[in-house]
Amino acid sequence: MRVILAPDKFKGSLSAPEVARHLAAGLRAGHPGLEIELMPVADGGEGTVDAVVAAGFTRVPATVQGPTGEAVEADFAIRGTTAVIEMASASGLAVLPDGRLSPLAASTFGTGQLVSAALDHGCTEIVLGVGGSASTDGGAGMLAALGVTFKDAAGRHLPPGGGALAQVTNIDVTGLDPRLGGASFTLASDVDNPLLGPEGAAAIFGPQKGATPEHVAHLESSLERYFRIMANALGTAAVDALDAPGAGAAGGTGYAALAVLSAKRRPGIEVVLGLTGLAGRLQGADLVVTGEGSLDEQTLFGKAPMGVSGAARTAGVTAVAVCGRTTLDRDTLAAAGFARTHALTDLEADTTICMKNAGALLTRIGEMMGEELVRTGSEQENSHV
Q: Which PANTHER family does the entry mention (predicted)?
């Protein structure tokens, strides 16, 4: 039998490649004759670079400015002239010093530095995976790293962060890196929120980044001003991007990508599946195993396991899910395309212990799955005797 392992990360416990390796070890222990291929996936957020590197891209390290100004070690991936940038590695919540949230001052400058580094490598097709950001600066930091200037009424350069945009009076895009004119951008995001309003970047995602109600109101006002000045600088491109699906992604970084970089938004998992070539690898497979830390209602709306199950259905391959826990009932999981679902909580009810011992528990689940495949194979052989 040929089995493809295509899980997403178990957030807070294991990366997607680690999940795949633990499952593979268990499967081989339970069924030594299996042919196993590891193809970790992601939905455009954390783990996207890991997923494409596992599929043949080259990882490129880069030291960039973190969300609050400190130097962080980030990376991106390249293959030919295509670059994949994972915003979380440069400007994400996970790289905040000691996890200290900074809702007004956090910046996306480091993400812009990664884009510049990709251009230095001659890349002309750039994928921006924008999940997990720490900022609500409308992508202004990213644009600043690429040559755009932001000034107040006194002609002073603005400090970083979405809060400072309340003082912006001039945005000058004439210094934008000219190499961007020869590059195409894909915004990999499942978020379809606009930049402003009750469903916008500040209102919906600001609290996740530490914003109080007062902060949210300030950020909303700042982003509105940012939009008005950007419209003066760019014209219709800035206006058209305001309510475009994905404009509110990553604290408004989606807006900057759409308005200034002329990015095209696509669902993150669709982009990752295309880059990894999963659909082609599924041909002739007997089973695909996917999953993530929590299979819940959010999973059903375009998260990585749903993308994998959809590809499996198209290829006529049975899909099985693994997860830390699930809040979905059996019928919902079956309707989502999963023939079976295995949760770590089936083996250990305490979720804290599950997160701590996720690797060992996944190995055990893999072993149980392998043993089940052996039994199923024996039963099928006996039925033909």
A: GLYCERATE KINASE
